[in-house]
Specification:
Number of helices: 9
Structural class: mainly alpha
Helix content: over 70%
Number of domains: 2
Distance between the termini: 46 Å
Order of helices and strands: HHHHHHHHH
Largest sheet: none
Radius of gyration: 20 Å
């Protein structure tokens, strides 16, 4: 079951990168099932193994929060870190200490840290645009990408992303989008775009 859930989680991440529908629902569902399964088996497993498993799922949840830019990602980070500390306390009592659960937990931790070390704009581009099946039509992702680039001081790249969003909006005939994107282009030029608000929906 643990292996099946891990594979399903990786598949969910692939769906996220491809930007296919319902990838968020799938990832959250897998996380929920994984955590519940781990808790149900807590009493049956060695405590070190059980806590290591919970910590791994904690880092998986934080990874999803980071990739989706959820506002509560600081909370998921603290939870994952807390679970890891508890797991390490149990693992250090084992012989040998460098057991498979410790190796898996360390690997997952390093992976998440490497993802977090990347600039937010680059993470967003990789998971929402680079391989997206909607790359040429997703005006909303290009707009948000331009905001993230501008916030990191990458004005030229932000203007390029905004131009792509404007091109898509023009092709789709979204006059309301063109007006909003033009206003945002001015904010990018002035480096004065402080808060992101989703593009308006035409009524």
């Amino acid at each position: 079951m643990r292996i099946a859930l891990s594979i399903a989680f990786v598949l969910g991440l692939v769906l996220k990168v491809l930007h296919l529908p319902y990838h968020t629902v799938m990832l959250l569902l897998i996380l929920g099932v994984g955590l519940v399964w781990q808790l149900v088996h807590y009493a049956r497993e060695d405590k070190a193994v059980a806590w290591a498993g919970l910590a791994v799922w904690g880092w998986a949840a934080h990874l999803v929060a980071v990739l989706k830019l959820f506002p509560f990602r600081t909370t998921t980070l603290l939870i994952a870190a807390g679970l890891t500390v508890i797991a390490l306390l149990f693992l250090l009592k084992r012989t040998p200490g460098w057991s498979r659960p410790a190796q898996v937990l360390t690997g997952v931790f390093i992976l998440v840290m490497l993802v977090m070390a990347q600039p937010v704009a680059d993470r967003f581009h990789f998971t929402n645009l680079a391989f997206s099946v909607e790359r040429t039509t997703d005006v909303h992702s290009w707009d948000k990408y331009s905001f993230l680039l501008q916030r990191e001081g990458r004005t030229a790249e932000a203007l390029d992303a905004n131009s792509l969003a404007l091109e898509i909006a023009s092709t789709e005939g979204g006059t309301h989008l063109i007006n909003a994107l033009t206003e945002r282009r001015t904010l990018i030029t002035q480096s004065n775009w402080d808060h992101y608000v989703a593009l308006p929906v035409e009524h």
